[in-house]
Amino acid sequence: MEKPKVVLGVSGGIAAYKACELLRRLTESGHDVRVVPTDASLNFVGAATWSALSGNPVSTEVWESVHEVPHVRIGQGADLVVVAPATADLLAKAAHGLADDLLTNTLLTARCPVVFAPAMHTEMWEHPATQENVATLRRRGAVVIEPAVGRLTGVDTGKGRLPDPGEIFEVCRRVLTRGPAAPDLAGRHVVISAGGTREPLDPVRYLGNRSSGKQGYALARTAVARGARVTLVEANTGLPDPAGADVVRAGTAVQLREAVLKAAADADVVVMAAAVADFRPAAYATGKIKKKDGQEPAPITLVRNPDILAEVAADRAREGQIVVGFAAETDDVLANGREKLRRKGCDLLVVNEVGERRTFGSEENEAVVLGADGGETPVPYGPKEALADTVWDLVAARFG
Ligand code: CTP
C-alpha cells in the first residue's frame, strides 16, 4: 500500500526545532513526508536536517526544479498538510491567499485537510488581526490547534507555546483517519470532564476511584481533530495535555462541578466522562488522622456530592445545549441505562458494559450509546477513540 503523503510546513519561529520530533513521529509511523520550510525558518533549522530526517528533497522556493511544477504538485498530491509551527505571518498569508513562496503556494493548491499549529508570543496570538485570520481559516475548514500555555521564548510565559509534538502528531493521525470529511465540530465549544475525583479525609488520605481518564482524553483529542474548541476539565489523571484543548484542573467533585458549570456557560456540548465520587467525607481533618493503641478507628461519615450531570442537564446554560453522560452497568445494561438516562435528563448516555473485560485503565472499551429520542447505538469492543468518534457522530447529527 502506498504511504499516506504528508506535507510538513515549517514557518519561522523558534519552535521549528520541535517540528523535527513531529517529522520523526510521522516518518516512523509510515508516512511519506515532504518538508516545506519558509526561508525565515531556515534560520532556526537548516534544510539539511529536514532532508536527512524526511529522506526527501527540501526547497523553499517555487523556482527550484521548475519542470516538476512543485508549487502545484506538492499540494495536489498531499493527503494532509500540517504547518508546525505556524507564525502570525504565515496564518495571515494563508488567510488572505498570498502565495510568495513554496509553502504558501502549497497551501493554496492543497485539497486535503490542513492543520495549523500556531506558536507565537501571547500578544501576537491575541491580536485581533491574528484572531480574525484564525477564524477565517477555521471557517474554511482548516483545523487550527489552540496554542498551549507555558514558557515562551525568553522570560515570558503565557498562551502561545507549540503543543507537545507527540500531541500534534495525534491530531494529524486523527485528521488523516477521518479523511477529507469537513471538521464537523468547527465553531462548537465542547466541555469534557475526565478522570476521577478524590475526596480528602486528611492532608495525606482521600477516597478515590480507579478511573484513568483515558476515555475523556480520547473524546478531547477527537473533538480537536473535528475542529471543536475544547475545554477539558480533568481530575487526577496525570495524562499529558491533549494538543489544542484548554485544560482546567479539578481535584474534588465540588471543584469539578465549579469548573464544569463555568465552562458550560457558553458550551454547545457538555460530556461528563469523569467518575465523580457520589459521596465525600463529612469532615476534613486538618491534621493527619493518627491510630491510637488499643482503640478501634472512628467510623467515617459520608455526605452526598452534588450530581453535576443532572444539574447541567436540568439547567442548560444555552438553548439547544447537548448533554452527554456515562454510566457503568453490569446487569440489565439497557434497562438500567434507559432508567438512568431519564433520571439524569441527558440527551445521550454512554453505557459501559463492565464485567469480565475491565474498562478502567485499558485502551479499549465496549458500550451502547442510548439517546433520549429512543436511539440505541452499539459500539463494539475497540479503541476508546472509536467510541469517542461515535459520540461525536451522534452529537453532530443532533446539531443538524
Ligand atoms: N456524575 C456526576 N456527578 C456525580 C456522580 C456522577 O455528574 N456526583 C456523572 C458522571 O460523570 C457520569 C454519570 O453521572 O456521567 C454517572 O452516573 P452515576 O449515577 O454515578 O452512575 P454510575 O457511575 O453508573 O453508578 P451508580 O448507578 O451505581 O450510582
TrEMBL record:
Residues 185-396 form the DNA/pantothenate metabolism flavoprotein C-terminal domain. It comes from the Bacteria. One of its GO terms (molecular function) is phosphopantothenoylcysteine decarboxylase activity. Residues 190-400 are annotated as: Phosphopantothenate--cysteine ligase. It catalyses: (R)-4'-phosphopantothenate + L-cysteine + CTP = N-[(R)-4-phosphopantothenoyl]-L-cysteine + CMP + diphosphate + H(+); N-[(R)-4-phosphopantothenoyl]-L-cysteine + H(+) = (R)-4'-phosphopantetheine + CO2. Residues 5-172 form the Flavoprotein domain. GO terms for biological process: coenzyme A biosynthetic process; pantothenate catabolic process. Binds 1 FMN per subunit. Residues 1-189 are annotated as: Phosphopantothenoylcysteine decarboxylase. Its EC number is 4.1.1.36, 6.3.2.5. Catalyzes two sequential steps in the biosynthesis of coenzyme A. In the first step cysteine is conjugated to 4'-phosphopantothenate to form 4-phosphopantothenoylcysteine. In the second step the latter compound is decarboxylated to form 4'-phosphopantotheine. This is Coenzyme A biosynthesis bifunctional protein CoaBC. It comes from Streptomyces sp. gb1(2016). The gene is coaBC.
